[in-house]
Amino acid sequence: MHIPTLATALTFGWAASAAQLTQVSNYGGNARAKPGMWVYVPDSVKIDALVVAIHSCQSSAQKYFQNNKIPWKQGSDRKGYVTVWPSSTTECWDVSSKASLSHDGGGDSNAIANMIKYAITQYKIDPKKVFVTGGMMSNVLAATYPELITAVSLYSGVPAGCFVSSSGQSAAWNNTCSGGQSIATAQKWGDVVRAMYPGYNGTRPRMQIWHGSTDGTLAPQNYQETVKQWTNVFGVSTTPTSSKPDTPEKNYRTDDFGENVQGIWAQGVGHSVPSHLDVSEAWFGL
Ligand SMILES: *[C@@H]1O[C@H](CO)[C@@H](O)[C@H](O)[C@H]1NC(C)=O
Ligand SMILES: *[C@@H]1O[C@H](CO)[C@@H](O)[C@H](O)[C@H]1NC(C)=O
Fold this sequence. Notes:
The protein is of the alpha/beta class and 286 residues long.
């Protein structure tokens, strides 16, 4: 009888992966907001890069990690990078209060920045290889912590600061913005970003913006507004430098606005545009 050896088991992929999503109970910093931090370190770390995968509304780090439509665990296993999974204490991330919309304001964005700083030290991440993906919060994080993040892949979000609450409420829903009625010039949207970290003059995260043309949760107009915002931040025109139909797949259109801003318009797709692991990883240079 043939008894499989360890080598045979490995060859046929029988050895179970030991890596698991693990909670970090004290990631440090003094933000008032205390979202949870979860981390996934693959069995074989091959690259000193970090991807922060930020869950959508009515989700959590664990649910997002277990959702088989969210491919970042697979990316982590395949390419060997670490992933951090923040977990909100509110139904949606706080993208409306002054605290979260300011650099070091003590809100959710501040707490996630603290998770990134913790991860850089703990997992020996190259600070030039920190990437963020998710919805509205990933855009807010790019605006409030530009010095920490290299690139963002934003799925079905809104401009940073679009969900602001005039009464300063935390984690408030904003119907004007979600309905696509928060319309401003590129300059105004750019000013909103710059005001979140006054005086900052370093590099900004490269921004990839995905949006579906039939998004019924965050109206499609938010795509144009977000493109205006980040092209202004990078000082480039809102007219694409190149436009590729049926890219990366049929009925999607990829528009480049120079090297630092890319829009991907998904015709006929609602909320949210499914994660495109390969395309987001390519944007990150992974
Ligand atoms: C919703 O956001 C817009 C900016 O996008 C802001 O002008 C408005 O005051 C906000 N609404 C509320 C109720 O806070
Ligand atoms: C840019 O930031 C650096 C470091 O904080 C500072 O020394 C410099 O004066 C700033 N430059 C401008 C033009 O604000």
